[in-house]
Structure formats: C-alpha cells, structure tokens
Design a protein that fits this description.
Layout (H helix, E strand, L loop, with lengths): L5 H12 L8 E5 L5 H9 L4 E6 L4 H8 L5 E5 L13 E7 L8 H11 E11 L24 H4 L2 H12 L3 H12 L9 H9 L4 E9 L5 H9 L12 E9 L10 H9 L7
This protein binds S-adenosylmethionine.
S-adenosylmethionine binds next to loops.
Length: 275
Amino acid sequence: MNTIPERIAKQVAWVQKRPGFNRAQNILEVGAGAFTTLAELAQRYPDKQFSGVDHELRPPALALAEQAPGNLQILRHDVRNLSLFSAEQFDFVYSAAVLEHIKELPEHLAEVYRILRPGGRYCFSTAPLWSSSQGHHCDHNAADCPIPHYAHLFKTRAQLGDFLIAERGKNPEQSAQILRRVYDRKDLSRLSRTQVRQIIENSAFEIESWKEGGDKNCTKALIRAVEDNNVYGLDLADLKISSIVGSLLKISDKHEQPSIWQTWLGRLLPSRKND
Ligand SMILES: C[S@@+](CC[C@H](N)C(=O)[O-])C[C@H]1O[C@@H](n2cnc3c(N)ncnc32)[C@H](O)[C@@H]1O
C-alpha cells in the first residue's frame, strides 16, 4: 500500500473537512505547489473533477502532470488572473499557504468569486502573516534563520541590514541579499492581519467562518519592541496572530437591498460582523 507523507495526509483531511467539499463536483486548488494534495484527492474521489494552478510548475508537478488521471488537470497560471477559467466553473476552491504571497489580494478574490458558482466556497489557510513573528518568510522554518522574531517589524531596512552584519556575521553582500528577500521579493503580500481582514470584508464574498491561530513566538517583550519602534504602524493585536483559516461563501448578491423583514430583524439582532 502506498503511504503519503504526514503533511499531505493532514492537508487532505483538512480539505475533506471544509464546508462544501463533499457535495462539490468541480474543485480547484490555487497555488498548488507540488500538487500532491490535489493528486491524492483526485485518486480518492474519481467522480469529482480536480484542477490545480500554480505560476511555477516544479519537477514533481511536471512528473505528476505526465501521468495525471482523467479527473486531474495541472495548469501553470498566475492566480491573480484566472482568465483560463470561465465564470461559475467551480463549486469549491481552496488554497493553503498562498494568500500571504499575493499582494493583489482584491484582484485574486474577485477572480475566485467570478469562477465560483453561487453557493460555492473559497476555503483558505494563510500563514505566516507579515504582521507575525516570522512573516518575513526568509528561511523562517530553518533553525539558523538569521532574522529574530518580529525584527522585520521593529527594525527599519537599514537597521536590519546593520544587525545582520554586526550580530549575525554576514558580509555586506549576504546582508543585502537577505534584505532583498525580505523587502523586495514580489511574491510576498506584506499585508497585516487587519489588512487581510479588511480586504476580505470589502470583497463580494460573505465570510462564513474565520479562525485565527496564535503566534507561539509572541512575548510581551517583543510586543514592546514593536510598540517602541512600530515601523509599519501596526495594530499591536495583529502581532499575536500568525495564521487564519477561513471559509468564504459566494451568495448571489452580498450587496442587494435587504427586505423589510431583514431590516426589521437586523434592528433586533446584533450584527454578525460585530460578533
Ligand atoms: C508556500 S507555497 C504552498 C504550496 C501548497 N499550497 C502547499 O501547501 O504545499 C505557495 C505556493 O503559491 C504559489 N504562488 C504564489 N503566488 C502565486 C501566484 N501569483 N500565482 C500562482 N501561484 C502562486 C507558489 O508558486 C507556491 O507554489
């Protein structure tokens, strides 16, 4: 029997538990990476159609594409523009660890909204957010990560460059290279948790569920360090949150006029957004 890596098994289980997955027929993963999760799902659900897009197809994805079953499509495309798909083509779209890479989040959400049928969902997980301890994404999972927790938020670019030379033994070229990865790479959104929330609230989607995960590296001393030199003027509450898992629902028209009954009920019941 073929066993799959634990990380993939966990991601498959995560997708299976998302609202709307079971009944969906046409499913899309955006930013599918190695496409392993999608391929596993395609194998387990031969009656569903699976598509995946990523702007970079690496060798494992290319190898998978060559022997993909009939219900699996592997595509190279930028997910900020999903023009290769038609309107209302999918019942269910998901992404894992992708939103934090998309600066043009409003455009991406509008595109996913367009290709979902009414009643369809976009389920996502995003981490680490820019406003969290490892949001700089520079070898953030490595034991020898050169950037201390939150330092990209409480040091300016110049201060971080000097720190890498003085405290981390980097030479000026190595320091400059790390700074380019933190501040110049184009596939990093550098959006705080509050900004992500605001962009999603302003999209056409209805937020069906929203769960934030704490930042295990957050200490009072580090919050104070950001408070003392809050380079991006962040809401300090954002520092405590590293991840978001959400489900977004496409209802027919989020902005349609409420009926007289809805208006009347709305006066009696507290608004969901303020829950
Ligand atoms: C951190 S990886 C996550 C991969 C996969 N979802 C997983 O969980 O293993 C982010 C993925 O998003 C893709 N990506 C980032 N920006 C993208 C864009 N604008 N268009 C398409 N793919 C993008 C990257 O190529 C990468 O494969």
